[in-house]
Amino acid sequence: MSDRVRVVWKGGPETEGSTGEVPPEIGEITARPVFRELARFETDALTGQPEDLGELMLDSDLRSFHEAWVPAEGDLLQRFLSVVRGRGATEIEVQHPTIHRRSESPAGCGPPAPPCAPDSKYAKPLPQPALGDLTDFQGYLKPTDGVNAQAAWRWQGGRGEGIVVADLESGWFFHHGLWNRIGFVGGLGNDQPDDMAHGTAVLGVIGARRHGRRKVGLEGVANEARLIAIPAGEGSEKGAANAILNAISSRRVPPGSVLLIETQHNIELVCEDGRRISSPFLPLEATGDGFTMIRRAVDLGYHVVQAAANGSTDVGPFLNGRDSGAILVGGGFHLDGRRVYKSNFGERVNVSSWGSAVASCGAPHSTFGDLWTGRLESYTASFNSTSSAAAIVAGVVACVLGILMAHGVHLAPRELRDYLVRTGNPRMSCPGQHIGPQPDLGKLIAALVQDGVLPSELRSRT
């Protein structure tokens, strides 16, 4: 565990600088607003122009959130909490840093759910001797067991044309041969190999294109969407909620865009026996600042897709009945849809998709190069858990929004979420471990036509 934790609160200390009342032996601790402009990357890869964020949309509610990174050793954290509480702070949370490389989730106050489906026990394909057409490995695109991408691709807008998909996480490998279409908001992210591989795999699921004369590589679910990378803070000290604010403040991420949240979080719990322990991995919505910002984005018309996180637990008790309006995505075993071991579950989880055996792009010299690897691009056949599932669903949402845009139709985020759930394909379930149906683009589009949302004669792609 990191030697520092993030303390978030509302009210109380409000200014930059030392908290002023912290005992000197704790050392200097800085309180600062949670929601603030991140350092920006100087050039937009899409236009070559300097980054231009709009005015941050702050109101009194957002301005009331503050944070500090506090040493966790000894009793220093408890002293700091006493100081903040004494200065009138409310809704205090202690959040522990998480990184994608961790495969085990803290147990929380109770044991994790029993396994339902194997997390990674499937026959991996052998490494390819040469880079060729890899789409045969993309079962998640196909009808029945997948999201039926071809049902959207036949129509105008069905590959996500005109739609922005913003990926909020830690890092990406920007030298990949497919990434000449990526824009940036707030920086390049970190350079940790596994974080860079993770972000590249996420964007590959959504926006990869076969390329070259031989059409090699993969096809992303929404491979004509415009991709934006938004780092959720630097290093382990992530600020995913603030990254959402930067996203919706950017002129290049307008309302109607897809915001994909690929972070997971620990919150300190006080158990019934008085023990203080880190929670299982939870979605950003489980944090106070995260829920506030996600709900704000949804209310403004952004379609927020959020990984349910990999804590192997029911998220319900940690959400306290709250629902931000985001699409919460669980991970299902690719063969039958059962919850993969690490995926969270619960009635709040709306839909699911493949949480194992997902083929996507990777980063050279990382864990995601098992299918094929070269100097500037790599491919994996083992992207997994809620990260892969959420990326697939974000691609589905972009496809639907592209078709709606091409036909001059608008659908609010909560309405589209309802269609995803109602038209999805139930797969094999685990008793008491709800992760929702898998979206089916064919059934979803048919329902939109039947309900008169889309015209009965859709325009075919030319």
- Give the helix/strand class: alpha/beta
Helix proportion of residues, in percent?
10-25%
Task: Give me the count of strands.
Answer: 18
Q: How do the SSEs run, as a string of H and E?
A: EEHEHEHEEHEEEHEEEHEHEEEEEHHH
DSSP strand (E) fraction? 15-25%
How does the overall form come out from the CA principal axes? globular
CATH H-level superfamily title of the largest domain: Peptidase S8/S53 domain
User: What Rg, in angstroms, do the CA atoms define?
Assistant: 21 Å
Q: Within the largest sheet, what's the order of strands?
A: 6-7-5-10-13-14-15
Poorly predicted spans: 15-25
Distance between the termini: 54 Å
Q: Given the structure, what is the number of helices?
A: 10
Set down the secondary structure blueprint:
Blueprint: E1 4-10, E2 32-33, H1 60-63, E3 65-71, H2 76-86, E4 90-96, H3 150-153, E5 164-169, E6 182-184, H4 193-207, E7 226-231, E8 233-234, E9 237-238, H5 240-249, E10 258-261, E11 266-270, E12 276-278, H6 288-299, E13 303-307, H7 316-319, E14 327-332, E15 351-354, E16 358-362, E17 372-373, E18 378-383, H8 385-406, H9 413-423, H10 441-450
Parallel strand pairs: 5-7, 5-10, 6-7, 10-13, 13-14, 14-15
Antiparallel strand pairs: 1-3, 1-4, 2-3, 4-11, 8-9, 11-12, 16-18, 17-18
Helix pairs in contact: 4-8, 5-6, 9-10
